[in-house]
Amino acid sequence: MSLPPASGTGRYFARAAKSIRLIRQGCTNRPFFHISVTHRRRLNSQPVIEQLGSYDPMPNTNNEKLVALNLERVKFWLGKGAHVTDPVAELLGLSGFFPIHPRSYMTAWRNRRTERENIAKLEAEQAKAKPPAS
Amino acid sequence: MSLIFRKLARNNPRNIITDAQILVISCRKLSIVPSVYDGEDPAPKFFSSNVQVLLKRLTRPDFTKVFRKRTSHGLTVLKTPTYKFLTNEELEEEIAKANERADRLLQMPPVVKIQQHIEDVLSKDPALVGYDTAKYIFTDITFGVANEHRFIVERDPDGYLRSCDHDVRKRLNQVYFPTLGRKLREPVMFSDLEKFNSLLDREQYEFVLDRACVQYEPDEPSYQKITSMTYQHVDNKSKYELLRSTRHFGPLVFYLTWHQTMDKLMLELLQSGAVREAVLLTALRQDIHGDVANGDVARTIVQQILPTPVQLTKPETLTEEDIQLDSKCVECIEKYIVSNSSMKSQQELALQGFREHYQQLIELSRGLKKAHGKQ
Amino acid sequence: MTTKILTLGNILSRPINILLKQNNVTSNLKTNFSTTSVACVNFFNKLPAEKLWKSVTSVSNAGAKKGRGRGAGRIRIRDLNRGQMIGVGRINMLWPGLSAPVIRGRELLKQQRLPDDQERLEKLIKIRDSMTKFRRLKLSPIERGWSGTKMPGRSLGPPDPIGEDAFTGFDTKVLQLRSLLIMKGNLGRTRNFQALVVTGNGQGLAGFGFGKAKEVPAALRKAKNRSGQKLMHFEIYNGHTIYHDFYTAFGKTKIFVQKKNEGYGLVCHRAIKEICQAIGIKDLRAKVEGSNNLQHIVKAFFIGLLQQRTHQQLAEEKKLHLVEYKAENEYFPKVVASPSEVRTKDQVQKNETLDFTQYVMNDKVILKKKKFPRFYETMPHYKTYLKKYEKYRNHEKIRLNLKVEYGEVKSFLTDKYPEKAETEA
């Protein structure tokens, strides 16, 4: 006896809109996501049609974030006209399967900007701290 | 060994010895240096049918050892044996099936060239710099793809999309498609040199090699290092008997022949009176290096030896064909010793001992035959 | 308890004092009275000690009916004479010729009073106390039989040697010891003891015997010696088990015996276990069905063992090779017996039983009962439990791995995200 398999036991309606999305599994303070295909209007807590992969957002000992993708089934569902949510599209973009998602570029640009600002702030503080010394 | 050196190093701050040096020193003492197949690719020669046949024959498969009692698979009690009534034909069929199973059990781990690093940039996207501080690793888990052909790529923080190197590939394959018995972290018996050496000193060669087969791929540098060290240890101690009738004997002989250090094995064969196998060994050297003086003769004798049954023990009576074949073998080896051997005197001595013993055996069996013939 | 005895002792000694006093009185009176006094007859000297003790230790029939004497059996008869010697008493007198030699060295000893021995009474009390406690016979766990201090299951040692032939290496085990009550015309109901023992050397020789006698030790001895004279030899396969499964019966007792591989042990009735140990069989499973009369079980099992056929016999009967397959040897076909001439496939008839187990069981098929699910497995709460604990299924293993790797339950994330309480401290 075990729980129903994560690979999907949800009911399937051929003409309903599908979406490929991240579904949060794991527990408190330990996120873990399944990449699953389910009906667009269905809740994340409900059984999915099929699991297509997984995504672990917490880096492991080697500072890696692991993503698993069943590309064959992703292609199949894309062919069926499934929608892809933004987070999944970002992951697929990073993997080289999709073009890079614009949001990834924006995040990268924002991160670079904040870093630059931080450095500038630091330098300014150092510059402030220096004159009294000299 | 290395512990003493480490202590020395601690006591005398002047002569600081690094770990790498310790390794070299402790190995040199035993004259064991780990080596890998990094020059010419041994795979075509190893997999050629001639060499495979020779290696299998040299393994000298003894079914009592091949089908020896092995640990039950997680069962606390052994299963009850089953019995069958069989006619002669059925028994032969069953034995043929057992032969096939023995072949499977004796299948040799492949000997291949060491793997090359994968350096393959799939795309560069400098606009992604700063997206994340961690790497993203993508694994294609499509059903029915072999581990070596699976797509495993990484997106680095510098925005490069690369194919992963072998160690990462192995790790992720183990994460998503685990192999039974393989560990994600390297077992201490392989990573800790002292523990590994203690295993070798206890002559647990088969255990080490079996475990290495499970833990590593045959083209990994660590696998080749570990197996080469084990083979050298076996060769130094002349404990070939421990690996006979196992799947590791073929690669051992191949390793020794490849590095042209098979004279100790040859000596062991001559001392135990296995002249035919000694000829097989010269033929193997001829196949691999082609430097044996009378290599072609050896090859022709091999063709005569192969149809005869495997000699697990020393023969007690001889037929005329046996005598003919063995005398040919002795001649062939004599030439080999003169022209190619690096342990001439010892091997000649061993061969002389064999000749004397064999002469007695010939007289005995001829006498017996005469006595029987007269009756 | 001791005080009670003391009082009892005092009471017993008192009449003597009285007697002495009376004598004194009479001497004073100087009248010729006979020495046998009538006045001092009382409860204690009217009855013999045996009856007195009985009144203390047991309860009368009528009393028992009323519920008296709950503690009956606790008080035990004590021998008050134990530890006492003639000539030695409360007053420490030296009686030459009674408690001491008449001549010591060269001088003639005289009757004299020695200083009183203070410890004498204490010693006496101690000896009497030691008799009061009811002690159960204690046995070491090795000597012990199947149950407590009862004989069945206990070892008796080898049978007695006959002439010069000693039974070396043999050991006897009691299987049954019971009392038989027989009515006799002139004696009424008499009691006999019957013993059933098995003896064997653990290397194939074994036998069992009965012994009947009026006393237990005699019955056991008879049985032991008789079993030594009824030895049978049994073949043991590879020194650990029987040759094949078999079915055997005696009366209404049926036994299904199964051959097992090394390390299985003896999983059977305790009497069968003892028999197997006597013979030297180490691995076997037996199921007793029907009547579990012990004598029948023993007889049935011995009959079954005697009817066993060795592999060679089986091969000869069938005129076919007998091949063994073992899982631990990767099912390598090992020929255990070959007949002198082997039949070909055409000679094997179509309706012949070729299945080994079926053949050795004489075409008897064991009814294997269906296994029902455990009673709770069909209940709804069990399903809930399984669902609830599904997510914890690997936790134990993970904890173990973490302990191996880090020495405690923590991971690399613990260093990365330390607990807040710790950072404050």
UniProtKB/TrEMBL annotation, chain A:
One matching Pfam family is: Ribosomal_S16
Q: Which domain of life is it from?
A: Eukaryota
Question: Would you tell me the Gene Ontology cellular component terms?
Answer: mitochondrial inner membrane; mitochondrial small ribosomal subunit
Q: Does the keyword Ribosomal protein apply?
A: yes
Which biological process, per GO, is one annotated for this protein? mitochondrial translation
GO MF terms here are:
structural constituent of ribosome
For the keyword Ribonucleoprotein, the answer is yes
InterPro entries cross-referenced by the UniProt entry: Ribosomal_bS16, Ribosomal_bS16_dom_sf
- Keywords, in A-Z order: Mitochondrion, Ribonucleoprotein, Ribosomal protein
What compartments host this protein? Mitochondrion
Q: Which NCBIfam families match?
A: S16
Question: Which PANTHER family does this entry report, sorted A to Z?
Answer: 30S RIBOSOMAL PROTEIN S16, SMALL RIBOSOMAL SUBUNIT PROTEIN BS16M
UniProt record similarity statement: Belongs to the bacterial ribosomal protein bS16 family.
Name of this chain's protein: Small ribosomal subunit protein bS16m
UniProtKB/TrEMBL annotation, chain B:
**Which GO terms of the molecular function aspect are on file?**
structural constituent of ribosome
Q: Which Pfam families does this one have?
A: MRP-S22 (PF10245)
Q: Which InterPro entries match?
A: Ribosomal_mS22 (IPR019374)
Q: Which GO terms describe its cellular component?
A: mitochondrial small ribosomal subunit
Superkingdom of origin: Eukaryota
Descriptive protein name: 28S ribosomal protein S22, mitochondrial
Q: Which organism is it from?
A: Mythimna separata
Species classification: Eukaryota, Metazoa, Ecdysozoa, Arthropoda, Hexapoda
Automatic annotation (TrEMBL), chain C:
One Pfam entry for this protein is: Ribosomal_S5
The family database entries (PROSITE patterns) matched by this protein are listed as: RIBOSOMAL_S5, S5_DSRBD
Please verify whether the record's keywords include Magnesium.
no
Subcellular compartments: Mitochondrion
Span-the-membrane segments of this chain are none
Transit peptide as a keyword of this entry, yes or no, is no
A Gene Ontology cellular component where this protein is annotated is: mitochondrial small ribosomal subunit
GO biological process: one example: translation
What's the subunit arrangement here? Component of the mitochondrial ribosome small subunit (28S) which comprises a 12S rRNA and about 30 distinct proteins.
The family note in this entry says:
Belongs to the universal ribosomal protein uS5 family.
Name assigned to this protein: Small ribosomal subunit protein uS5m
Q: Which organism is it from?
A: Mythimna separata (Oriental armyworm)
